[in-house]
Write a structure and sequence with these properties.
Number of strands: 11
Low-confidence stretches: 14-22, 25-32
Bound molecules: zinc ion
Number of helices: 7
Largest sheet: 7 strands, mixed
Distance between the termini: 33 Å
CATH architecture: 3-Layer(aba) Sandwich
CATH topology: Collagenase (Catalytic Domain)
Number of domains: 1
Order of helices and strands: HEEEEHEHEHEHEEEEHH
Shape: globular
Oligomer: single chain
Radius of gyration: 19 Å
Helix content: 25-40%
Length: 250
C-alpha cells in the first residue's frame, strides 16, 4: 500500500473501531459487529456479582442570577431498583433467552444509605457541563477526567442530562454511550420513577462495558444488545452471558 492509501486505510479503520466502541441509539446507525463466540454449555454455575460505581454530573440552576447546584439528585434506592430489574432481566430465561447468572449491584457501603443521593460532581468548564449536558468532545473528556479522579473504574456509570457527543461529531438520539471504559447514561427517570426500558438500557450499556457489540436494528429477536433500546428487548445470547459474567475489568 502507498503511504497515502495506508493513511486513508488507518483513518477508516480507526473510525470503525471508534464507532464499534461507542454507545447505542434509539435508532441504530451502526453496522452490526460480527464476533465469533464458541461457548461451552454453562450449567450450574454460581452467580457472578459486579459492583457498579455510579455518579451524576449535577446540573446547576440559576437563582437570582447565581448558579447553584440543583438538589433533585437521583437516590441510591432508585439506582438499586434499576440494578435489581436489570439483574432480573439477565437471570430470567426461556427458549432462546439465556438465563444468565449475573448480578449488577452497588457497593455494600453505598447500600447502607439507600435514601441518600448518588455521588455527584459538577463542572464549570462549559455552558453545557453547567447544565449537566455533554455537547462535544471536550465536555466528554472533562467528565471522564473527573470520573478518573474519583477512581470510578471499573464499572463506572455516569448519569447526565443529555448526551450530544459519543465518539462521533454529533449524536442526538443516544440514551447511552460507552467509550474508553466509561458508561454515560442519559436517564429517562423522573423523580425516581423509571420506565422499564431504563433497566434494559443499563444492562445494554453494561454489556458494552464488557465489550459486547450492538446487534443490527433489524435483528428478528428481542435482544438486550439490539441497537434499539426497548422494554421488550430482554433476551441475552450465550455469548452475551459469557462476556457479562467476565470478572476481568475492561
Ligand atoms: Zn449500544
Amino acid at each position: 500500500m502507498k503511504p497515502n492509501r495506508l493513511a486513508v486505510f488507518l483513518v477508516l479503520a480507526l473510525c470503525f473501531v471508534m464507532i464499534g466502541l461507542s454507545g447505542c441509539t434509539r435508532i441504530t446507525i451502526k453496522p452490526p459487529t460480527a464476533k465469533t463466540c464458541n461457548v461451552a454449555p454453562f450449567a450450574d454455575q454460581s452467580e457472578v456479582v459486579h459492583t457498579l460505581n455510579v455518579a451524576r454530573l449535577r446540573p446547576m440552576i440559576e437563582v437570582d442570577g447565581e448558579n447553584i447546584a440543583s438538589d433533585n439528585a437521583p437516590k441510591i434506592s432508585m439506582v438499586a431498583n434499576l440494578l435489581d430489574q436489570a439483574t432480573e432481566i439477565a437471570q430470567e430465561g426461556e427458549g432462546n433467552d439465556v438465563a444468565c447468572k449475573v448480578r449488577l449491584t452497588m457497593s455494600p457501603q453505598t447500600m447502607l444509605n439507600p435514601d441518600q443521593a448518588v455521588r455527584e460532581f459538577n463542572s464549570n468548564q462549559s455552558e453545557c457541563l453547567r447544565k449537566g449536558k455533554i455537547c462535544e468532545e471536550t465536555d466528554f473528556n472533562e467528565v471522564i477526567n473527573q470520573a478518573s479522579n474519583m477512581n470510578m473504574k471499573p464499572n463506572a456509570i455516569i448519569l447526565v442530562e443529555e448526551i450530544g457527543w459519543c465518539g462521533q461529531t454529533e449524536v442526538d438520539t443516544y440514551w447511552g454511550c460507552t467509550l474508553r471504559g466509561y458508561t454515560i447514561i442519559e436517564s429517562a427517570c423522573q423523580e425516581g420513577l423509571c420506565p422499564k426500558s431504563e433497566s434494559v438500557l443499563w444492562l445494554h450499556e453494561f454489556g458494552h462495558l464488557k465489550d459486547r457489540p450492538d446487534l443490527a436494528s433489524n435483528s428478528p429477536k428481542p435482544y438486550v444488545m439490539s441497537g434499539v433500546i426497548d422494554a421488550q428487548n430482554t433476551h441475552l445470547t450465550k455469548c452475551d452471558c459469557f462476556d457479562l459474567r467476565d470478572k476481568r475489568s475492561q
